[in-house]
Every structure is written in structure tokens, then in C-alpha cells.
Amino acid sequence: MEANAQMEQHSEAIVTFDNVVKRFGDFTAVEKAHFEIGRGEFLAIMGSSGCGKTTTLRMLAGLEDPTEGAIYLDGEKVNGKATWDRDTPMVWQSLALFPFLTVQENVEFALKMRGVGKEERRQRAEKWLEKMQITEFANRNINQLSGGQKQRVALARALVTEPKILLLDEPLSALDAHLKVRMQAVLSNLQKDLGITFVYVTHSMSEAFSMADRVVIMSRGQIEQIGTPEEIYREPYNRFVAEFLGSANIFDGVVQGPAGADGWQVAYEGGETILPKSELPDGRQGQKVTFIVSAENMQLSLPDSGQPGIEASVAGEEFIGGTAMVFLETAGGQELKVQKSHDELSLLNLHAGSKVVVHWESGSCHVLPGENK
Amino acid sequence: MTKRPTLFSLILSMPLLLWQLLFFLFPLLFLVAISFWTVRNFQMQPDLNFGNWERVLTRGVFWDAYFRTMILATAAAAITSIIAFPASYAISFKMSEKAKRWMIFILIIPFFTSYLVRVYSLQVFLSDAGIVNAAFGYLGLGPFPMLNNAFGIIVGMITLTLPLVILLQTFSLNFVNRDLIEAAHNLRCGRLRTVFAVIVPSAKVGLVIAALFAFILSFGDFVSPLYLGGGNPPTLSIMITDFTKSGQQWPRAAVVAIMMIITLLTAAFAAITYAYKERGR
């Protein structure tokens, strides 16, 4: 809800991708990207390597030119405009700090290129060094800094010109887990403080979901879904997104007929369930339907409880903080995931090979709209 | 950071060590010893005679040759580096991997032919009746004296060092992190400015060492000063042959040679120190 409210605040778009296509020879890196980025929004572009996320960012930075379509930046069409004529500073995955300059000289670089005078340069750089808490390293050589310190220098260098938008290309991927979480907080707070737009490319769901107002999920050059983290998590658009998020069980079923006033009876391999009508408003008998049930909405019972559901056997278990993910296999060979608290699991006393019955409330089914067109 | 060499690494470096001892250090010590010997009746006799050093170092003709050689070699190294850079830049940044390989191959070809042969052919180009002046003649210009002067010497030295300098520069430019160039562009640094603000400083070590090689090869060069410069006034290498020819003055030739070695060691040390100097604390 909060994310939606934020979206309305920055209803005006700072960036528009209008059916942008990028090809390298025969290879299509980005296919018909069509979306807007709001003013002051934190947008994450997520996908596995080679999905076109970095190419999308590089087109926005002016490091690649679109093959087709148009990109608008602050209302102006920027196709063909060189990166040095745009105001789209970027933070590189390698950080790309200049090793032959000191920390302070790195931060001053963009100002020097704009012909800002020496004294003003120094003052503005110092302000950003202070903001990023690296004042004490001003005269250091880049190679003597730690990963986190370099990260802060890269941010200061990109932000010193006070741009309206900052582009980040997997800037945290080289850091260890602990530092990564700390830098996420730094980035998140920085974006809120400055109120500028961040476009953040990552392959990590936890980074994207913890920081971004909206997330774009890409796969093989296509945008699969755009939405707030909550929307994407609750209502993945298609099988790819559901599988990418990794915490949902996907079922392929066929509508058998109405079940009461507001449900559909649906059969799938290994069982039957009721889908709420709200999920499938214009369903009909015989229609194929793909739906998901998220791992934490799945219930487990022992076979002797008499509870109807899918029979499955335990294949393994994985700890995720205070909960565990139980991996199950049905007689038909389908793999299922169930997330439960340790307390609940200890009551069931499960071990590998245990037989269980899996069931869920009909309201926790979500139909994948992208698979049921 | 100091590491103790292991036995294995010592054994591996033995051939190099032996070679350097036999063919560099011993001859060098011998050279130093000779510089104190005395020549009587065209015969060298072991001695501890400081007269050779005094005679050479107090004479204006030595210092004239020294500074002349220094200026020629410095100019040749600077001009070669400047001429080489656009070519190295083009090879490293603008060519496909396949074209790069061909260019490196082509740059090695000049080393197949003797430097002496190339210098002789330059005489044909540069003489008053040569090809270049003939071309100027058609335009109603010249002839320009291009042989038996500093111009000729520098052309020869550039011919000697240019392919090597381009190769060394190209290799060092290949190692420039491409992200740095994009980052500079992204921070509003235009193409030409990026060359000087980012590419040159990034490749500094390689560029300085390439120039150092050009300086070392030019400083000790004997062929160009003799065949393209006419040998008079002499450079240091020509002075060495002059001393040995006139009156078997090997000890004085040794003094000149030692002065050259000291100069090159100083230049190499200064250049490498400069190349590896880092900014900031």
C-alpha cells in the first residue's frame, strides 16, 4: 500500500522507454521494452545474467544506442545523444574508480570536466565525502581502500553533480553478505534523503525486493512483469516469474465445473481443488488453468489424520532463518515446497521418506494471468 | 611484503643469474678495471691510473658529445613516443582482435631485416639527390639537407625504435580497464579529453617504459650517428670507436662506456620510479 502511495507522488515520469529494442548483430538483447520510471522512484531491474537488464541500463546511460524505439529522459528524446551530454551518472559493477587519482580527485572528476573552479570543486567534493562518511580517506590512494569504502567513493563520485537520476549496475555484487546488507541500507536511505530516481540493476531478489519501490523482471530480453515487490510476490504474472521467485508451487489443471456460487472445481494431476471465482472470472468447463500456491500457504498433515489432499513423501529440508522449507515429491513425480516454522514441523516429526498429506485453503490459490490468456 | 625465495625459485633463476654474472657483471668489472690501465707504446698495462678519467672528464669535447647524445636520444624517444601513440591507440581500441594480431605481426617484421640495411636505404631517401628531395624538387622546393645532420640521426633512431615502441604501447593500452573509459565518458569527459585524463595515466607504466627503451636504444646507437649523421661532431658511441682506433686508447673508451652505463642506469631508475609512483597516501 505504501508503495502505491509513493507511486502516485511521482506520477510524472522522468524516464520513458517506448518500445525499445536493442540488437547486437543477430542477437536481440532487449525486446520491445515499454515502461516508465517515476520521478524519485527506486526502480530495480532484475533477472539472471544475459536477460538484458544491463543493456537496458546502458541504453539509459547513453553507452548503447537503441536499435528501435525511443528513450525519453526528462521529456527529451535522447536516442543518439552521447553519454557525456546526458546527466545519467552510473555506478559500475567494477566501480571503475580511477586508480591514478586520489579519493578526492575521483570525486571531483565530473566537476572538473564541467569546468567548475578549483575552490568550488573542493567544497562540493568535501560535502559528498562527508555525506558518505569517507572524509578521512580524501587523500588516500584508491587501492588502499576496503570494498565498502570504494563503494562509497563510487557513490560520491556519481552524485557530486547532484543529478536527477542515478544508475547502478550490480554495485554490491562484489561485497560479502554482511557488508551487502549494510550498503543496502546506505543506498536506501540515500535515495530517500536525496529524493532522486535510482535505477538499480541486480540479479539478486533480496536486493531488489528490499530496496525498490517497483521491480522490473526480465528474461531473455523480455520484460516479464513490472510491479511493487508485494504485487510481484503475491501475484506473479506468469510461470517464469513464479519460478524465478522460487517460493511458489505451480499446478496445471483443468476446470471441471462450478463449485458453489463463487468457485471453480479444478482437477490437476494428483488431486482436485477449488479456485475462487475472483481469480478466474470468466472460466468455463474444460478450460486449462495454471495456478500457484505459495510455500507458506501450504499445510501439512499426517496421512492418518484423514485430511484430504495430495499425498507426498519428504525429500529434504532446508533452514531459512526461523522457518524451514520442506521439499516433497508426489506419487506423480511433482516437486512441492512447503514453508513451516520449526515448532510446527517438530510436532509432525518428519524425516526423509515420511509420508504426508499436503492441502491448502482455496483462497490461497493464485491464477497466473500470463499463462491463462 | 618481502618474501624469502624458495630453493625451487633459486634453481629456476640460476641460468639467468649465471648468464648475467658471466656476460654482464664480469665484463662490467673488467671495463671498470681497464679504465685505470695505462697505454704505453700502443700496449695496455694494468695500472691504477686516474689520468684516463681526468683526461676524458675535463675535456669539453667529451661533454659536448655527452650532451649532444643526450639531447638526440631524448628527442628521438619523445618524438617516437608521440608518433607511436595514435597508432598504438588505433590498434588497441579501434581494431578487431583479428586485425590486432595482424598488426602485431606486421610490427615484428622490421626486426627481420638488419638495422644497418635499413639505415643504408634511408641514405637513398634522405640524400640531397634522394627520393624525398626529388619530390620536393618537383614542387620547386629544396633541396633540404637531411643527411649528415641531427635530422638524419633522429630519423634513423626513430626507424630503429618505432616498431618496438608501438608494440610496447599497444600491449600497455590493451590492459587499460575499458570500464574506466566508459566511466569517464559517463562523467562528462569527452573522447579526446578521456585520452589524456584517463587512458594515458592508466597506461603510464607501459608508456614510460616504451619511451625508456627508445631512449636506451637511441643513446647507445652507433649506426645512425655514423651513417646518417656523418659521425662528426661525434656522439658518445662514435667517440668510443675513435678512442680505440686512435692510439689503442681502450682505457679512455672504457671511461666513456662507464659514463654511458651510469647515465642509462640513472635514466632507467628515474623512469621506473616515475612510472610506478602512486597518487595519495
From TrEMBL, chain A:
Report if keyword Nuclease is assigned.
no
Looking up Pfam families in the UniProt record yields:
ABC_tran (PF00005), TOBE_2 (PF08402)
| One GO cellular component term noted in the UniProt record for this chain | ATP-binding cassette (ABC) transporter complex
A GO molecular function annotation here is: ATP binding
Every copy of the ABC transporter domain together lies at 15-245
Task: List UniProt keywords, sorted A-Z.
Answer: ATP-binding, Nucleotide-binding, Transport
Which parts form a coiled-coil structure per UniProt?
none
Designated name of the protein: ABC transporter ATP-binding protein
Give the originating organism: Sedimentitalea arenosa
TrEMBL record, chain B:
Task: State the CDD domains in the record.
Answer: TM_PBP2 (cd06261)
**Per the database record, which ranges form the ABC transmembrane type-1 domain?**
66-271
User: Which Gene Ontology CC terms are recorded?
Assistant: plasma membrane
> Transmembrane stretches, by residue range?
65-90, 102-126, 146-168, 195-219, 253-276
- Main location as per UniProt: membrane
Tell me a GO biological process for this protein: transmembrane transport
Q: Where in the cell is it found?
A: Cell membrane
By what name is this protein known?
ABC transporter permease
Name its species: Sedimentitalea arenosa
